[in-house]
Amino acid sequence: MKTSTDATQEIERKYDATSDAESLPPLNDVEGVIQVEERTEILDATYYDTPDLQLSTHGITLRRRTGGSDAGWHLKLPSGPDAREEIRAPLTDETAVPGTLASLVRARTRDQSLLPVVRIVNVRDVRRLLDAEGRALAEVSYDNVTAHPIDPSTPEVAASMEWSEAEVELIEGSPPFLDTVEHHLTAAGMQRSRSASKLARALGNRLPARPSAQPTRPTHTPHGTKKRKTKRPSAADVVLGYLSEHTARITDLDIAVRRDQPDAVHQMRVSARRLRSALKTFRTVLDRKVTEPLADELKWLGAKLGVDRDREVLTARLYERIDELPESLIVGPVPTRVGSWSDAQRTENRSGLMNVLNGPRYLALLRALDALLAQPPLLPGSDKPATATLPKDVLRDWQRLANRIQPTRTTPPGPERDLQLHNARKAAKRTRYAAEAVQPALGKPAKKFRIQMKALQKLLGEHQDSVVARNTLRDLATQATLAGESSFTYGLLHHVEHDRADDAERQLPAAWHTASRPKLRKCLAR
Question: What are the boundaries of each domain within the chain?
Answer without folding.
Answer: 6-206, 235-525
